[in-house]
Amino acid sequence: MKSTRRGFIATTATVGSALAISNGASAADDSKKLRLGVIGVGGSRGRYNRGGAIARQAAKFATTVAVCDVDDRHTAEYAKEFDEKHGLKLNKYRDYREMLEKEELDCVTIGTPDHWHVPIAIAALEAGLHVYCEKPLTLTIDEGKQIRDAVEKSGKVFQVGTQQRSSKDLFLTAIAMVQTGRLGDNVNAYVAIGGAPGDGPFKDTEAPEDLDWDMWVGPAPKAKYSEERRRFFRWYFEYSGGKMTDWGAHHIDIAQWALSPGETGPVKVTSKGKFPNGVPSGFNWSKFLDGEISLPNTYNTATEFHIDLTFASGAVLNVNHHYKREGDNVDFGNGILFEGDKGRIFVNRGKLEGKPMNDLTDADKKELEEKVIELCKGKKPGNHMGNFFECIADGGKPISDVWSHHRTMTSCHLCNISLMLGRELKWNPKTEEFDGDDQANKLLSRKSREGFGAKVATVS
């Protein structure tokens, strides 16, 4: 029954999904729309994470049939909203494995905390589903290899939620400016992504009764509950990577795409930075991330940093919590400065500016528009979620596929590993290892708590 129904969906997807994309939530024939399960919905007001927001975006293009969250409040709120607004009775789950086992789905959204992204995504792919996953996709470089292999094996569409890749008038145009030579040669990028807090220690408390805290912790080392640990999980290396994998997943992605379209990643990383006071000097991060030693309940990701990622071409991607250049009128806390022999441009989510932009002719603008379409693999930019469903319909590659995102996240993780070890590292982008550096290579992966790793795909 499952394979027959999915075969029918495959033949009708081009008509049904294209219709959904063209007119949003008002596609007339629900029987031609894909069946969607949403995992991690963050509550009606987006508490704790953006899962609810991306699930609602996906609901414009598919029929939501099931919702899953480890917090019963989130599940109930999301299900109630769909009942009141759309008259849909959603099946509710706490465990994503049970949902994947019982439901007849075609696609899922994943909006959980970061440390759960890859285990859930691999399980969904093994269940034969298309996947839209919130960024950052991975917790380690090894996870990137795992999810890349799983996508290749599955043949399914996999979109990562780095929406800046769909921003035609800002980030895509900035990339086009660099790649069409309008900044000249020897282009480097200077990125600022903001610092992180270093607060703590925090008091451990009892977890809310409607939250399955052990499942929330999942593959990470066992830990007691605190509101800070849950709400601000991005500042704990156990669950995320601080600002490096939060905003870095956006800005490092755009900068690397512009500077290195044909390479697999940097070859060297140098860094200096600061960690919160709760992290001792010379700390053994490998043992900590494997759950063998512990830290006080404090934020533990880097609070300040200045990092150079150097590519084989000689291009440098400079990553900072805040970037300032004395005497040169350059000072910003969030954004990307591209600078080459012929000039410089600055881009963030609010603007794209610089003299090279002011000097564009109509012919230049037309060429840039054509380059943007090329960057988008022939598709019209603008709607990131729509791009996911369009690719399901026509079998194309999404704008933020697993290959490009693994390359971006590798750079983000390299930044953190260099900060952890406090020294320069040499990276081999072909073998995806540090040459002759056992200490650094130990940080490419980490142990998962038994019963929660990426290999767990079904429930009995």
The top-level CATH class of the largest domain is Alpha Beta
Strand line-up of the largest beta sheet:
15-14-13-7-10-9-8-16-17
Mind summarizing the main beta sheet? 9 strands, mixed
Uncertain segments of ≥5 residues (pLDDT<50)? 1-32, 456-460
Q: Kindly give the count of domains.
A: 2
| CATH homolog superfamily of the largest domain | Dihydrodipicolinate Reductase, domain 2
Structure annotation, total helices: 17
What radius of gyration results from the CA coordinates?
Answer: 22 Å
Helix content: 25-40%
Shape by Cα distribution = globular
Output the structural class: alpha/beta
Arithmetic mean pLDDT: 90
What this model shows, in words?
The protein is an alpha/beta fold. It has two domains: 164 residues, NAD(P)-binding Rossmann-like Domain (Rossmann fold, 3-Layer(aba) Sandwich); 256 residues, Dihydrodipicolinate Reductase, domain 2, CATH 3.30.360.10. Helix content is 37%, strand content 16%. It contains 17 helices and 17 strands. A nine-stranded mixed beta sheet has the order 15-14-13-7-10-9-8-16-17. Strands 3-2-1-4-5-6 form a six-stranded parallel beta sheet, sandwiched between helices. Strands 11-12 form a two-stranded antiparallel sheet. A hairpin with a 5-residue loop joins β9 and β10. The longest helix has 22 residues. The radius of gyration is 22 Å and the shape is globular. The relative contact order is 0.15. The N terminus and C terminus are likely disordered. This is Inositol 2-dehydrogenase. It comes from Stieleria marina. GO terms for molecular function: inositol 2-dehydrogenase (NAD+) activity; nucleotide binding. Pfam families: GFO_IDH_MocA (PF01408), GFO_IDH_MocA_C2 (PF19051). It is an enzyme of class 1 (oxidoreductase).
